[in-house]
Design a protein that fits this description.
Distance between the termini: 43 Å
Low-confidence stretches: 262-267
Shape: globular
Number of strands: 12
CATH class of one domain: Mainly Beta
Structural class: alpha+beta
Order of helices and strands: EEEEEEEEEHEEHHHHHHHHHEH
Helix content: 40-55%
Strand order of the largest sheet: 10-11-7-4-9-2-1-12
CATH superfamily of one domain: Regulatory protein AraC
Mean pLDDT: 86
Strand content: 15-25%
CATH topology of one domain: Jelly Rolls
């Protein structure tokens, strides 16, 4: 019998390892790494009729795709919003087609590492250290290859700290001294997705953290800023490729590690609960 699935909710990255499921008609709001711990998966880009069969794949944010796996266990890692992880990871992928990178040069070693995190239920700090060492700090990236505008960093941090509010693009542009048009253009160049989609993506992350605190899925999604359950269900399905009911049915078989919830953020989230 396999161990429970694990969900690690770090500040800039999210890692799921456990029961496999198909990803259908998904447009990820963050770049993702997907590994089959056993078996393979068939990845199909939206504009391609030919599937890529592999055990390891890197998909840029905003790239529509579907995936079907014959593996019983799978690893999905949502990468940082600034693009640094993506630029690191694409260096060890051997092949590229239809906007998708696949077949890691270190596939066997990386799958063994993921299997170790999964089977031993490693604490979040140790699991994080291993992921950074073996996936995200493999080489030095030059500033010419990947340079993040400090103003975009500030906007992302503002959205994260005010996740339940819907500030306009103009408000955010004024906050960092940019024009509305320039902010939208630069933000999408950095993250590969529009500002609104990033805000919704972060609300999914907050929802998961609130569930780790004991919230019901409905209460967590409303506290995170979704207008109603229908809105949440639509966003969840479009960004993750599965229905929330899939998670609810398996809630007791998923171990959630949520180091992002520190003493300060707990106070903020609890204030939302009692408001």
């Amino acid at each position: 019998m396999y161990p429970k699935s694990s969900l690690y909710l770090w500040d800039q990255r999210t890692l799921y390892i456990g029961e496999a499921f198909d990803l259908t008609s998904i447009t990820p709001a963050a770049s993702i790494l997907v590994y089959c711990i056993e078996g393979t998966m068939a990845i199909t880009a939206e504009r391609s009729s030919k599937a890529i069969v592999t055990r390891s794949v890197l998909i840029p944010a905003g790239t529509p795709f579907s995936a079907v796996s014959d593996s019983k266990r799978i690893c999905i890692c949502f990468l940082d919003p600034y693009g640094g992880d993506f630029y690191q990871c694409k260096q060890f992928m051997e092949n590229f087609t239809d906007g998708i990178y696949f077949d890691s040069k270190d596939e066997t070693h990386q799958i063994q590492l993921l299997e170790n995190i999964y089977s031993k239920k490693l604490p979040e700090d140790i699991a994080y250290k291993k992921m950074v060492e073996h996936f995200f700090l493999r080489s030095t990236i030059s500033k010419d290859e990947h340079c993040v505008d400090d103003r975009i960093v500030k906007v992302i941090e503002f959205i994260k700290n005010n996740f339940s509010e819907n500030h306009s693009n103009q408000y955010l542009a004024d906050l960092v001294g940019m024009s509305d048009v320039n902010l939208r253009r630069t933000f999408k160049k950095t993250t590969q997705i529009p500002i609104r989609r990033y805000r919704l993506w972060h609300r999914l992350f907050v929802t998961a953290n609130l569930m780790a605190l004991g919230y019901t899925l409905t209460d967590a999604s409303i506290a995170a800023g979704f207008s109603d359950s229908s809105h949440f269900n639509h966003v969840f399905r479009s960004m993750l490729g599965i229905n929330p009911s899939f998670v609810l049915k398996r809630a007791q078989s998923i171990s959630i590690f949520a180091p992002y919830i520190n003493s300060c953020s707990i106070g903020e989230l609890l204030n939302l609960r009692t408001a």
